[in-house]
Task: inverse folding
């Protein structure tokens, strides 16, 4: 069974920068996995942020960016705002299925 | 404006079959590159991808749940239905449906419903 791994939790100060990563048990994450990122706040549905590695939706704040970094997908938040405190999930596409990561709880403190 | 909304029972008994409906507007499931997927989230847990149906009726299922899931579409009603057999208390979760877009890039799940909580209990 394919496992997608994220940092369980990260803490960042307001105005700081933080990078969340997403790894696959099958090997290095490449653009062919079409990595996507979602933000979820308590009691809310997930909100799409990034698709196909680094593409932003029209509603995605410019401080969010996606990339590939050291064999993983990465989500970087710059100039972090208090409202960025949330759970972040990555999603990877495999041949016949998709798998979400376990999520990263981001605390802004 | 794309909207999707889940509906179905709030409680099902163990061993029963769950039937959930996703009703959508703002797009057509006959449009090339468009799909609708189902994702669930157990209380306090991570998102779990379940199934996806494409405009051409191609279907994808989670390997671990494949034997229990069926996804179908009714384009005339703008609905997608997910059935899950042999429900167990561990299937207690909020079930989300979402619009899936691969028309240009793989934009993926860009519009989500609010989710519906399903509790499995006798």
Result:
């Amino acid at each position: 069974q394919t496992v997608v791994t994220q940092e369980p939790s990260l803490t960042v100060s307001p105005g700081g920068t933080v990078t969340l990563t997403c790894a696959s048990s099958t090997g290095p994450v490449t653009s062919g996995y079409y990595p996507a990122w979602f933000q979820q706040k308590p009691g809310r549905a997930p909100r799409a942020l990034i698709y196909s590695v680094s593409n932003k939706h029209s509603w995605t704040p410019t401080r969010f960016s996606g990339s590939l970094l050291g064999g993983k997908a990465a989500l970087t938040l710059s100039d972090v705002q208090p409202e960025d405190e949330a759970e972040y999930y990555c999603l990877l596409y495999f041949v016949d299925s998709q798998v979400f990561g376990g999520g990263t709880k981001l605390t802004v403190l | 404006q794309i909207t999707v909304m889940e509906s179905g029972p709030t409680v099902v008994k163990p061993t029963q079959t769950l039937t959930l409906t996703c009703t959508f507007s703002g797009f057509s499931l006959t449009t090339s590159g468009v799909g609708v997927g189902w994702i669930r989230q157990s209380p306090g847990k991570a998102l779990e991808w379940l199934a996806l149906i494409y405009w051409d009726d191609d279907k994808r299922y989670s390997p671990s749940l494949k034997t229990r899931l069926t996804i179908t579409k009714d384009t005339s009603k703008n609905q997608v239905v997910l059935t899950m057999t042999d429900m167990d208390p561990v299937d207690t979760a909020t079930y989300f449906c979402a619009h899936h877009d691969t028309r240009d890039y793989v934009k993926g799940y860009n519009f989500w419903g609010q989710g519906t909580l399903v509790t499995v209990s006798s």
Notes: Residues 14 and 99 of chain A are 31 Å apart (CA to CA).
